[in-house]
Amino acid sequence: MGTTTGQKYEEVHFVDSTKPVWNYSLFTDEDIRNFQEGTHYSIYELLGSHRATVLGAEGYYFAVWAPNATAVSVIGNFNSWAPDTHPLFVRLDRSGIWEGFIPHFKTGEVYKYHIRGYKGGTLDKGDPYAYFWEMRPQTASITWELDYDWKDKEWMGSRKAHNSLEAPWSVYEVHLASWMRPDKNDEESYNTYAQMCELLVPYVKEMGFTHVELMPVMEHPFDGSWGYQGTGYYAPTSRFGDPQGFMALVGAFHAAGIGVILDWVPSHFPYDYHGLYLFDGANTYEYADMRKGFHPDWNSYIFNYRRGEVKSFLTSNARYWLDRYHIDGLRVDAVSSMLKLNYSRKEGEWEPNEHGGDGNLEAIAFIKNLNEMVYRDFPDVQTIAEEATDWPGVSRPTFAGGLGFGMKWMMGWMHDTLNFFKLDPVYRRDHQDKFTFSMVYYYDENFVLPLSHDEVVHGKSPMLYKMPGDDWQKFANLRLLYTYMMTHPGGKLLFMGNEFGATSEWNYKTELPWGLLQYDSHRLLKDCVRDLNGLLRSEGALYENQFNIYGFEWVDLQHRNESVIVYRRKGKDSAADLLVILNLTPVVRRDWKVYASGKTAWQEVFNSDDRKYWGTGDTNNPTVPVRLVDVGEDKYEIIVHLPPLGAVVLK
């Protein structure tokens, strides 16, 4: 019997030690059973390629699930891509796993699996569990180990408070390739992970965001997919460096006090030849019935959530990023498409479930199990659903009948808010209900308010140009919108470039228009967002009760004609309440009267019209007169000056 280095094993069988591949296994019967049942949550420790030492020989153990294959071998530069020289051995337990140990195989070698599959066809496939891949357009996997000296012990020990639902959440959404490039005119020009430690991390810290959300970093062949069409689910993209480089970036964020959320895509995958599609010549990872297995919106394929091995692949993948990369949260993409059998399908293009409904029961069970695993093993992180329907209980525990996510994107708020702010201010009085509707259903879920990449592409225009009016009014409206967002209950998410008013739609081929910061209007808008983040982080009233009914109160909705709206944010200390007053028209309103209870003194702590934000600076409140008007009701009259298209926050 041989030995392994840091790996568990069942038994070693040698066919002939002079042959290049030894019949060697890391699997136990329990591993196989859990893998097939969909309950193996660390299968990445077994499948894929792993450095091992057997009978004193160092090399790599390979294991791949290809249940429809009749032969599998490892090919690469090491054997001149010859398909028959390094065959793997199929396990006799009908698990469909092919495995073997190749002595003297080096770390950093490129390889693929040559598969003779269904109906005798041959395919050369990348390793679904590879930790590292070649830079596209090359498509081979690379043997790699994940050794790393993490230095974020302090963060990991305290992040439960940072990632709590009672902590401030202000998320900066980033596409790593196009945030900033060494050569802004060259779409093949990338900053490395190390360079991002020096550029991106200090910027996010300076801006006061609590978290960064990275659009998919998993290896993907086509830049135009923005990472959402992945082939290497276990590998950070090689566009920016190696896995340790990405670990260093995560560690740098943690050292700066910033949480890292990954955009994660368990809903679909592309049809690239080297990827998961028809992996062994048959529908192995995807549903065979294309009414369930093909995604018409994205021309991609849908995971088979009925199959245990596929569920183990996906659930283990979620665990892998939390385990090996110290990730603080997963934003799960396209959850709506997973839940509904009729998503983007016309009548006759889908088949109801066994109960006659439109829910994908297998996907629902998978999602619940996924969230149960995450919160059991990593109780100090969050999962966040991008879910756009009225599906009930998305962010409620599974034991209460929910899907088990920690939070959910509030797509309704985003659509209603943008539609409202696009209106000429003269018409806003007729649409106040659209503005206030969010609080009617807000407490149904734990919501994140997203102004994401999807809102600044495909002809939707950048945030600045969604705003009506002349140049000054556009900026004033945008400052007003951001103040409303930051003082509304819930988490917040802002896509890169929105913070300084990009004047063009986001383009993944170039970088953000950083040159705009030479203009006061854009540079000072950025300062406004920075200070709003500071306000959010410093005022417990804005986050301590953000997901319960005690944190918010409408104070004045009775001035529809003037489009002035007032609400109160309340934390655990009532003495620290905030009063938010929004003037949604360009009319200056002096000596505006607000009636609120319980406090004898207020002071202005934020004014979106301040000169330091490119406002007029003419309408502020150095003092705030307060007069008791009803002793029995403990009601006070507060007199404030309201700037045009401006927000005033009192404390």
At a glance:
With 651 residues, this protein is an alpha/beta fold. It has 15 helices and 29 strands.
List its traits.
651 residues; alpha/beta; Immunoglobulin-like; 22% strand
The radius of gyration computed from the alpha-carbon positions, rounded to a whole number of angstroms, is: 27 Å
Spans where pLDDT lies below 50 across 5 or more residues: 1-11
Neighbour order of strands in the largest sheet? 10-11-14-17-18-19-20-21
Major beta-sheet overview? 8 strands, parallel, barrel
CATH-defined architecture of the domain at 551-650: Sandwich
CATH topology of the domain at 551-650: Immunoglobulin-like
Explain the overall architecture.
The protein is of the alpha/beta class. The N terminus is likely disordered. It contains 15 helices and 29 strands. Helix 1 packs across helix 7, helix 4 packs parallel to helix 5 and helix 7 packs parallel to helix 9. It has a domain of 100 residues: Golgi alpha-mannosidase II (Immunoglobulin-like, Sandwich), CATH 2.60.40. Helix content is 24%, strand content 22%. The longest helix has 19 residues. A hairpin with a 5-residue loop joins strand 6 and strand 7.
Write the layout of secondary structure elements.
Layout: H1 29-37, E1 48-54, E2 57-65, E3 71-75, E4 89-90, E5 97-103, E6 110-116, E7 122-125, E8 132-133, E9 141-142, H2 153-162, E10 170-174, H3 176-179, H4 193-207, E11 211-214, E12 218-219, E13 232-236, H5 243-255, E14 259-264, H6 290-293, E15 294-295, E16 300-301, H7 308-324, E17 329-332, H8 335-339, H9 361-377, E18 382-385, E19 407-409, H10 411-422, H11 432-436, H12 438-441, E20 447-451, H13 463-466, H14 471-487, E21 491-495, H15 520-538, E22 552-559, E23 564-569, E24 578-583, E25 589-597, E26 604-607, E27 626-630, E28 635-642, E29 646-650
Parallel strand pairs: 10-11, 10-21, 11-14, 14-17, 17-18, 18-19, 19-20, 20-21
Antiparallel strand pairs: 1-2, 2-5, 3-6, 4-5, 6-7, 6-9, 8-9, 12-13, 15-16, 22-23, 23-24, 24-29, 25-28, 26-29, 27-28
Helix pairs in contact: 1-7, 4-5, 7-9, 14-15
